[in-house]
Design a protein that fits this description.
This protein is α/β, with parallel strands linked by helices. It folds into three domains: 57 residues; 66 residues, Histidine-containing Protein, Chain: A (2-Layer Sandwich); 87 residues, 2-Layer Sandwich (Histidine-containing Protein, Chain: A), CATH 3.30.1340. Helices cover 51% and strands 19% of the residues. It has six helices and six strands. The strands form two sheets. Strands 1-2-3 form a three-stranded mixed β-sheet. A three-stranded mixed β-sheet has the order 4-5-6, covered by helices on one side. A hairpin with a 2-residue loop joins strand 1 and strand 2. The longest helix is centred in the N-terminal third of the chain and has 56 residues. The protein is globular and about 65 Å long.
Length: 235
């Protein structure tokens, strides 16, 4: 009898353990199902809230278009009436036709600086005034000589069918870009190839540094010309 009782006791214990394991597994299954259901319900809500917040913070396309048009109209280097502006989902498209490369590049930079602009698609065509290559070359050489930031460098200028090619040496990347900007502003230039090489010089004269800084500020659409004074001493 005691042995049978002990056997029944062990059987009962195994049964209780099995029931406990079953109950534990069932609870885990219920918990997993509950978590899955919660995720399925919460995910769309959270995504919707994030999208609503993003949409709310995004600047309307019509506002961006007006801002770009206003910026173009206020810039003397750009013929704003010749440029069409469209905005779709923060992407600005510029189209139209102008007569010089510099105005086209500046229009793009002005548009890129507007808050809310994600990208700028440049479809502006350049139809320069038809001029003799010799006249275009003379104007480029003169403009480079008269510009305080580029007058001290010997830049070779070649023009063929309105395509200008610059070569020579300057002391900084900024000066190379300035030579390009000056050339792009000349009527008749329809294309530019800038072959100028940069040869860095450690010790530069103060007046050269000052002239370059002033010219860079003048070309920067974010800076109002005349409000800043530049002074350079010992570099």
């Amino acid at each position: 009898m005691p042995a049978r009782s002990a056997f029944r006791g062990r059987a009962g214990t195994r049964k209780e353990v099995s029931m406990s394991i079953f109950t534990s597994n069932a609870n885990r299954t219920v918990s997993s199902l509950t978590l899955s259901i919660f995720i399925l319900i919460a995910a769309p809500i959270l995504q919707g809230a994030a999208f609503a917040k993003k949409t709310k913070s995004r600047i309307p396309d019509i506002t961006i278009t007006r801002a770009v048009k206003g910026e173009l109209a206020s810039d003397q280097a750009v013929s704003a009436h010749l440029i069409d502006v469209r905005t779709n989902d923060g992407i600005v498209e510029l189209s139209g036709s102008i007569d010089n490369l510099l105005a086209r590049d500046r229009a793009v930079k002005l548009a890129q600086a507007i808050r809310g602009v994600r990208a700028v698609v440049n479809r502006i065509e350049v139809y320069p005034v038809v001029r003799a290559d010799s006249d275009i070359r003379v104007d480029i050489v003169t403009a480079l000589a008269e510009d305080p930031a580029t007058d001290s460098y010997e830049i070779r200028v070649d023009v063929e069918d309105g395509k200008a090619v610059l070569s020579g040496n300057v002391e900084s990347w900024a000066e190379k870009q300035l030579c390009a900007s000056v050339t792009k502003g000349i009527l008749g230039v329809n294309e530019l190839k800038n072959n100028i090489k940069v040869s860095f010089t450690p010790n530069r004269k103060d007046h050269e540094i000052k002239a370059e800084i002033e010219r860079r500020l003048e070309l920067d659409p974010h800076v109002t010309e005349g409000l800043l004074e530049v002074a350079v001493k010992d570099g």
